[in-house]
Fold each of these.
Amino acid sequence: MGKSYKNKKIQASKNSRLCSKHFKESDYQEICATTGLPPLCRHLKKGVVPSIFPWTPKPSTSAIERQNRYMERSAKKELFPPQNPIETLTGNYSMEDRNEVSDKEENLPSTNGN
């Protein structure tokens, strides 16, 4: 834990305490391991390190928005993989492309003789 402190003279111990302002919401347990319910008081997850300090720069909202857009695009690509191998290599495909392909497939004559 000492790496997170700006003042290198501070030594963290088992009994060291920090206020909740130094931890992200995601650092806390959402459900109690023994009861399966939300905990009555907040407990940190094991191995969590304080990461919010006055000297820590906050991420810009544009960086967060960019990350969110990237995650959405990645999720769509996993759900709807490309039909064409060339699209796989170039990464140039979208939901619209997939819908166009499925529309064309519906209009093809049946090959099973029906």
Note: The first helix runs from residue 61 to 79.
Amino acid sequence: MWEFLVLLLIGGSLALLIMQMRRGRQAQPGMNAVQGTLLVTGVSPVRKG
């Protein structure tokens, strides 16, 4: 039983590692932001009228 858990743990760790490596290649929003700035996402402009 514990062998299956160890294999599952190793497989999950490898999957997370691969996902992090793939994500690192893409340009992430806010990576070039000045330190101390707040990145706000999902905010629509206010409609007037």
Note: The chain has a mean pLDDT of 78.
